[in-house]
Amino acid sequence: MYAEGEKILPVNIEEEMKHSYIDYAMSVIVGRALPDVRDGLKPVHRRLLYAMWEMGLDPSKPYRKSAKIVGEVMGNYHPHGDSAIYDTMVRLAQEWNMRYPLVDGQGNFGSVDGDPPAAMRYTEARLAKVSGEMLADIEKETVDFVPNYDESRLEPVILPVKLPNLLVNGSAGIAVGMATNIPPHNLGEVADALCLLIDNPEATVDELAKVVKGPDFPTGGYILGRDGIRDAFRTGRGSIQLQAKASIETDKKDREKIVVHELPYQVNKAQLIEAMAELVREKKVEGVKDLRDESDREGMRIVIELQKDANAQVLLNQLYKHTNLRTSFSIIMLALVDGQPRILNLKGLLHFFIQHRKEIIVRRAKFELAKAERRAHILEGYKIALDNLDAVIKLIRASKNTEEAREGLMKRFKLSEIQAVAILELRLQSLTNLERKKIDDEYLEVIKTIERLKGLLASDKKILALIKEETLAVKEQYGDPRRTEIIAKAQDLTVEDLIAEEQMVVTLSHGGYIKRLPVGTYRSQKRGGKGIAAMGTKEEDFVEALFVASTHDVLLVFTNIGKVHWLKVFEIPETSRAAKGKHISNLLQMAKDEQVASVIAVRDFRQEAFLVMGTRKGLVKKTKLEAYGNPRSGGIIAITLTEGDTLIDVQLGTDKEDLVLATFEGMAIRSSLEEVREVGRVGQGVKGVTLEKKDHVVGMEVVRDPKGTLLTVTELGFGKRTDLEEYRQQGRGGKGLINMKVTDKTGNVVAVRSVRDDDELMVISTNGTMLRMKIADIKAIGRNTQGVRLIRLQEQEQVGAVARVVASKDDEEGGDEA
User: Fold this and answer.
1) Active-site residue identified among 122, 149, 382, 727
2) DSSP letter, residue 62
3) Is 242 exposed, middle or buried (0-12, 13-18, 19+ CB in 10 A)?
4) Would you tell me which of 221, 382, 407, 598 could form a disulfide with 650, CB atoms 3.0–4.6 Å apart?
5) Is the same domain home to 62 and 154?
6) Ranges 4-8, 693-697, 726-730: which has the least confidence
7) How confident is the model at residue 531 (pLDDT cuts 50, 70, 90)?
8) Are 473 and 509 in the same domain?
9) Is 122 one of the catalytic residues?
């Protein structure tokens, strides 16, 4: 139903929804969610601060109940609910949220643990001292005022801030289709950048960024790297990584503990501790003995006590990866410029603040000039009256009323109405000579003020100089050192960062089972001992390879068919000493006919070294290590082999070293690696030794210590050491010299190793029994001898593998009993 004469106008619902939604969006953008580029405040912040200023709640006055303040703001300026206003006031008072708090709160205003503040009826507040710089000169017509929501009073459109609040305190807000997230910065740095831009308006963003180092969060912590800061300063968008400040401490019992002193911005401490505890309960992080919060008024202190064998740095890296000890902060420097949302870079933000200050200073100067001119006008009237004192008094006494006296003064002495009224209001004490001198002195001061203000208004240079002076005064009063340190960016944590670095014994069986154990698992024994079980194997399987490497090393796994695969040591399962491990086919993509021939542990592929390869048929190949530095999932060709040949060993070497090739039938040849021509990765190699018909190469050694000894081990557990000096250098490709006298008692040669007296030896049998002994226990004898018994073997048992170990003091003391 509709009244007579009214019309119903058809409206396209799509158009109506579009316009209505745009109106709503703009209302949110302009009226609620985004800060103004000039004062860095949203309407609710501006209204709260102005209402508190109106209430006289400056820092020198007593606190007032928060409920009273919220009521004033809601009733006079912001009719959007008391909780929104109180939440705003609470945040402006929280030291862990605001770099420079604008409200001074008394009572429970929450905590960094996420505890809510007390109800507004319990807390009290007043303006913080720094807020005086936000409202300074507001009474001098420096900003425009508009009617409030019910037009009962006026409220400021903007605040005449001296503090570059948008940068120093930051801002965050989600509007419709856009958001802002500006981090806080250090006041001193921002002030210096403002001064730099005033002195040099052509200064680049990069030049300004040398002064403003980056965000400076109230909670401190670290910013990792400068790339994100540089992006944000240049474009208005960027992402930075924040990290807690933590240290590793040692107590009186030499037990380590991690202590967290500062958290990334806006990280909830209680939730963080709970997340750490959850990781420990789920055993995603191991090695934590106790976790507690020792924070007090002196500062933050989260203590993580470690178990005796835990690696503190590795555990800390794990916490960085899995908790909010390391977070990211996305920077979007979006603000309202002339009522329109714009993304601004660092120079843009500083520029608009300077423009705002220029307008404030001009308006303040005009206000003060008008005031000074009014006063000068009155003082000029006083001077006329004092110069004609008797006539003035006579005229006033002869007048019937004030109106007649005013008119008489104006007519006789050519005074303005303002001057005449001021003269009539003069007290008798002002007519003394002393008071007359004060009027003359004041008049001179006012004239100087007028000249100064006119000179200021006429000179843009003077206005900028005054902005600089006032900015430096704010810096002097409120500036403080940086809290957030900017450090070199840590690369994204790799798995290696979460794994403790330690030496491991890696064993590989003939059947292809691989595992790792800490070196300290095995204790040194005397020569001739029975050894301990190193690996559980099936009857038909036996241990074929054994070596020592760090958990952070990359293993180059060379196979008998001349291919190489990559495997990280920490990816090998760590099991018990008797366990058989995991089949290598589950770790590498190997073909059915591939068997592991040699494994080399490498940390840096860029080192100046060659990979030296030896084959069963006596060929030798030398290729630069860096040629093998690009891993591929299925492996790559390491050497091209002839039919019937296999790769037996690969070692690192240089042209300054020699190469020893040893054969199954007890021969050996020593030649210089310099004689071996360097070839590409897929090359075949050159002849290293001339073999008898039934003979083949069983071992290869790169000689790094010419004064060392060559250890030779046979099938039946015999071995000997011979000084390398007894192996004279020969030309590549010869037959060589007798290395060991092989007999039915000793069996043929199965391995050779270049060793020193302080090394240790691991010998492992085909049944899986392992013996660890000191090299010094093996006597050095001549070449053409059969050696001594190293390990006692059972019937049908033979030596399966031999490895040299560089032993440490701790290693000898640790491990299981034999």
Assistant:
1) 122
2) P
3) buried
4) 598
5) yes
6) 4-8
7) low
8) no
9) yes
